[in-house]
Amino acid sequence: AARDVKMRTSSYRPQLRRNPNDAILGGVCSGLASYLGTDKTIVRIVAVVCGLLITKLALLCYGVAWLLLDD
To answer: What angle is formed at CA 29 by the lines to CA 49 and CA 15, rounded to 5 degrees?
Structure first.
């Protein structure tokens, strides 16, 4: 209860840090999940999906540029 009061009355803000104790690779997703107050599995799934989508988008843009740009 005292912690809740301290969090409401002060300018407390959790720090964004890696969590190497709960890491799969570097602990980035685990640290981000802790910072956001959410489940680390959700953050890891979102990170993988975004990585796959961005990779495909980058390859698509490269292919379009290859077709459209002159030699």
So the answer is: 140
